[in-house]
Automatic annotation (TrEMBL):
InterPro entries: cNMP-bd_dom_sf (IPR018490), Env_Response_Regulators (IPR050397), HTH_CRP (IPR012318), RmlC-like_jellyroll (IPR014710), WH-like_DNA-bd_sf (IPR036388), WH_DNA-bd_sf (IPR036390)
Protein name: cAMP-binding domain of CRP or a regulatory subunit of cAMP-dependent protein kinases
Alphabetized UniProt keyword annotations: DNA-binding, Kinase, Transcription, Transcription regulation, Transferase
Cleaved signal peptide residues: none
GO cellular component, one term: cytosol
Start and end residues of each HTH crp-type domain: 151-217
Organism: Halomonas daqiaonensis
Keyword Lyase: no
Gene Ontology MF terms in the entry: DNA binding; DNA-binding transcription factor activity; kinase activity
Domain of life: Bacteria
Record keyword Ubl conjugation present: no
Classification via Pfam families: HTH_Crp_2
């Protein structure tokens, strides 16, 4: 399948490139299917590929020697995995795990860095995306310190909903507690509070979004800030 012309193999970040740059870039990509739970990067390991999700979702996770884990960002159709390559780095500082199965465009790290050198438009776009990513990570750190768990849970569900197809999310309380860096009991209380308000429905291993506007109202302002930053830095280039 020619991913240079098919809209079904689209990534919003790459769609922001000028047409000729986009076609040249996609010509060197391959389409891969990523299964749930697959690890695309590990801290300290060499980065072999850059990934540009089509309809999959990837969590970027900071890990501690004690075994603690905290999601600091996520990448879906709007982004990429392998951002250290933009800076000429060869190793990852974060773990990247597929949270939602699906397809992605994949390019070798050497080829990606070659395109960066040959395409000023790609270099500018990647720098803007890196700025968005840094803003999102900073926002998440502040959000974890200042905002209620219920608001943070709503924000996380909205971010996941944005990057997946459909209203049903495959998420366990154990996984969500790890991503938010809190105890499972706390996530359970937050999810039940959102469910009582009719915003979501939770069953074992699955959360269904019923009231998207209501979920946005329940979230802290960090969610709207993240979307605004992306729109200002990336989408206006398309």
């Amino acid at each position: 399948m020619d991913c240079t012309t098919s809209p079904s193999y689209s990534n919003r970040l790459l769609d922001s490139l000028p047409e000729e740059d986009r076609k040249r870039f996609l010509a060197d990509c391959e389409i891969v299917d990523l299964a749930f739970g697959r690890k695309l990067a590990e801290p300290g390991e060499t980065i072999s590929y850059a990934f540009f999700p089509i309809d999959c979702l990837v969590s970027l996770i900071a890990t501690l020697e004690s075994g603690g884990r905290l999601e600091v960002s996520m990448a879906g159709n709007e982004g990429m995995v392998g951002f250290p390559l933009m800076l000429g780095a060869e190793k990852s500082s974060l773990q990247a795990v597929v949270q939602g199965a699906g397809a992605a465009l994949r390019m070798s790290s050497a080829c990606f860095q070659d395109h960066l050198e040959r395409s000023p438009a790609l270099e500018r776009l990647m720098k803007r995306y890196l700025n968005v990513l840094m803003s999102q990570i900073s926002q998440s750190a502040a959000c974890a310190h200042y905002h209620s768990l219920e608001a943070r849970t709503a924000r996380w569900l909205l971010m996941t909903h944005d990057r997946t197809r459909g209203d049903e999310l495959r998420i366990t309380h154990e996984f969500l507690s790890g991503m938010l860096g809190v105890r499972r009991a706390g996530v359970t209380l937050a999810a039940k509070a959102l469910q009582r308000r009719g915003l979501i429905d939770y069953q074992r291993g699955r959360i269904t979004v019923h009231d998207r506007p209501g979920l946005e109202a329940a979230s802290c302002r960090c969610y709207a800030t993240d979307r605004k930053t992306y729109g200002q830095m990336i989408e206006r280039l398309a």
